[in-house]
């Protein structure tokens, strides 16, 4: 029934290639099927002005789509002179999601920026960004700890994200582009290892949904994130 | 336990004053406690370029906070030269929420813009905007029908929105500013009369939450939206 | 002869509702006929960089029109990414007019920003803004004096503004929108209690005017401002 | 008494060098004392969208100050990415002033843009711009008439502008920079040959002024503009 | 003598991986040592307004550096709201270089945009962009020809680019970052197969150079480009 | 053969009028045929943040074209809200070229900005800007030395620039606009007195060129710059 022939609770294959670029303190290329995002973690020994003197750090995210990551070329946001509402919404989500698992006191007075640049898009770019950003963050923090700049691990848990949706009446896991553009409802879940929820964004597109529908999507998301947690763990060991 | 002394499932008083401005085809000033938003619906006999020739209309939303709607003055977005990510996120949410209950074919080739300008803020400005925008839209469509420009009512249902959150461990309904700035989780629900969900945005702030927590928030939201549906109905009769 | 049936020297009714919003140190909703402007005064304990260390304060104004304050919806300046020339011209005028009656030494090293947001427009929005801004400023300074932050009243006089014009050959007071869009000349006067002039901006639109015409407009303006001074006084007692 | 030693009703010497640049349809370099402005008139056979099909033309103005026209270098507006409020205010004034003497029907469906670029500033740049722009416009229209593109002269009158002010208690004509920065009141008059007024902008700076003061400034302006009308006439014969 | 131990006329290893992304009509990841640039060619069946109706096509380039392509993170141009002068200079160079080898008549009324996104930077990103863009263009044109949309090959020649410089007094080929930041002169050559020059940009940094120096750099560039021509040919066969 | 009738190695007449504006520390109006550029040097006793505390100064350039400097009016960059890529490219070139002959240590902790504003354009505006900027810089430094603010002359050499090109198959010196728009190759040379090269930018337009062509253009440029050096010397003595 799904265009890809996948079962409703079947994810696309995930691969995480760490160290994809050499300058960043942490980096990976995460692929969820044909969606590929380059995630880098950059450590800077400075913090935003409103945090100064509090002995705390900060984690933030930025997101961009290369112009030809998609089927038809999109114009470059730098050329247009502003970031779209969609881009800003995603950036804010990435930052919030990662901050949910970091102890800012233990991080100390430094900022880590997670840049998520979509090389190729086939649905689920924001969730792949979050899942990959955690890997880049983990690698960067490992390096700070190895160098003795941090003594207690500030990363408390794993965090991962996945999209689910109601496609032709059936709840399905990990929407690809053909499903995403035709779904009745589209939900992004950011989950934390152990089953807690960091964020739910569930939107009715063609048809609305009910409490039961929301729960079924959440349960699919848990299945999906368990798979991602495993891939993250394998990539960072 | 709540700073305001309200019970966990108790909403702030809602009032909706229709016809607050005279030029707009529909308008109201909605007050949810001390949060007050001016909502206007403007009908224009033109549609966005990508809709031309499809025989359909469009509904969109814009949102702004007056500089001194808040405790301390915020800078004016027009002066800064761009809308913040938060503003754009809210605008997109308003538009999506209202479109969820409108049949674009019946609306015909015209656009209705819902402007939500926050006069005074005390938490829940985006949800009050959606609830008030529906009233402005209803009044504007009534006027189009009265003038014979539309023959079949394009508004299929009522839509309303409310925030809920986990405050000091307890799920509570309709967060005001003191609660909002100190909540463990903050969720905005956009619901449709009859119990369907148009949108859920639930974010962990201090602590994460689980499936049970999400459900309890959703149930509070249903109680809240039932009250708003009633106020909307009374205001537009 | 006037569309509204008013006599040439007859103003529209003025009402000033103080305390319209609760967060601002001073606020009012001023109505001049159907023109309604929300004016707030925000006190900030900081001054522009070029004033630092001089022991003086600053008073400045900002102005905006809600998108649907007018007959047809105007685009939002924040969305367009810049303020129009008209907006900036009006903002500068508001600031200059209020500064003309304030002793900056007595104000001390703080800034008061007067935000004038037009809720509904029917001609004369810039002059209503100035007249209302004085009320908001007066209330804010009263509050600073009550709290002992200022010991000598920095407001030396009242200031008010009114538009006059030559309409179908006759000088008339307080143009409303139908007159404004059809006037031969349009003049805005900012006057100070006691008969002094703070600013004159008189523009020929369809036909030019002569010295005699200018004087007749000025005399009408004095009549109008006397009425506004009274309304200001009543509102702030 | 005046820093320059001039009598209160004495203008600075005016020179108008026509044909200062070769590409523009009309151009001049106007010097009022040390203030020097390059004015060009550019004819384009297209009109703004809102005028299409009305058989009318349009006249508009643009203004800029070269970065080092002033005592200390100002930043370039193109580099800052926006025009200041002051620049926009002046541009609007230039356009309005010239339109006051042009019959748009006779001009036909074309636009003339008057660019006023300040090469050197010593007070009165906006008034010199208007006076010089008329010369550039006159030359451009002459050329259109000579080429048979226009048959009836659309320029109905001369227009000129001058600043006056109250300096150390005395009304004086044609403020230079040292006077301008120290004046109690500063007024710009745009006058039309024969004594009519196109625009008055009179602002109290240090002290306010009264009706008598306004009249005395207006009378000085008439003296000044008579001198400018003569110089314009001589330059364009 | 060179930090990398290379001989003065020794290039870094070049690899070109074609088909790096699936949506673009042509794409490759070009690596020149540690410099890696993703080049995509996007075909659009529309042309810039100024070319309409001429029966010709257009080729243009865009360039960007991912924020963490470099040793320290640079801010994102989309977030800053404008492209730097450097970026625009490079974009213009890429477009000019590719247009030098394309017959626009044979291309027909379509536009090909060459996006060059630097994944990792180690000197020579603009020259690698040009060399890689040719490959992406070649692949896209091959695909247009295969689909019968173009009948005569519009690509007349190969074009490639390389940087050379004077490092510690010696002319060297293909500067990497440590050399680039310490060179006395830095030159970028865009050459065409067969020995013709499309563009030379040679800049003295620490010390100036003479005619002899320029010639020696040009001769190194010819050696370098011959190697690149070969790599391009191998990648596109 | 040349549209102007000049010999291939014949420059247009150069005149340099120093002291063209009175506020700048150094200024000149340079004319190369019909190309006229106003160059001013502004001294500021502050340096860019990244130079603080190094005991060095900075020299930078800005460039702009007046809207009607050209055959048809161009839109004003300040009105469009951004500088074009061409403008930024030229600004960077002006700054680099002048810095090539200044000892920043001897200049001391101050910045000199060279503003080059094109009054009238007929080809070669960027090269005229560089040649004129040197004169403005020389005059400003003379004034600093006369005032005892600088003790050792920081200007080590003269720098000048000229364009050459291949026009109808023949290398020619100092392209004017008709030649520039029709040339096969267009090269800008920035040369230093004594024969050294500061910058070469040579671009094939219609046809590519070879090593021999490049050399012939360079030799013409040397002839041209020798003439400019002489004019610069005469103007600043």
From TrEMBL, chains A, B, C, D, E, F:
| Residues in Exoribonuclease phosphorolytic domain copies | 10-140, 158-222
Q: Which reaction does it catalyse?
A: tRNA(n+1) + phosphate = tRNA(n) + a ribonucleoside 5'-diphosphate
Keyword match Nucleotidyltransferase: yes
Enzyme Commission code: 2.7.7.56
Name the Gene Ontology biological process terms. Answer: rRNA 3'-end processing; rRNA catabolic process; tRNA processing
Query: Which Pfam families does the record cross-reference, listed alphabetically?
Result: RNase_PH, RNase_PH_C
Give the record's keywords alphabetically.
Nucleotidyltransferase, RNA-binding, rRNA processing, Transferase, tRNA processing, tRNA-binding
Identify the enzyme class. Answer: transferase
Q: Where, by residue number, does phosphate bind?
A: 86, 124-126
On whether Nucleotidyltransferase is a keyword of this UniProt record, the answer is yes
GO MF terms listed in the record are: 3'-5'-RNA exonuclease activity; tRNA binding; tRNA nucleotidyltransferase activity
The record's section on InterPro entries has: ExoRNase_PH_dom1, ExoRNase_PH_dom2, ExoRNase_PH_dom2_sf, PNPase/RNase_PH_dom_sf, Ribosomal_Su5_D2-typ_SF, RNase_PH, RNase_PH_bac-type, RNase_PH_CS
Q: Which SUPFAM superfamilies match?
A: Ribonuclease PH domain 2-like, Ribosomal protein S5 domain 2-like
What does the sequence similarity comment in the record state about its family? Belongs to the RNase PH family.
Describe the task this protein carries out: Phosphorolytic 3'-5' exoribonuclease that plays an important role in tRNA 3'-end maturation. Removes nucleotide residues following the 3'-CCA terminus of tRNAs; can also add nucleotides to the ends of RNA molecules by using nucleoside diphosphates as substrates, but this may not be physiologically important. Probably plays a role in initiation of 16S rRNA degradation (leading to ribosome degradation) during starvation.
Subunit structure, interactors included? Homohexameric ring arranged as a trimer of dimers.
| Official protein name in the record | Ribonuclease PH
Q: Which organism is it from?
A: Pontixanthobacter aestiaquae
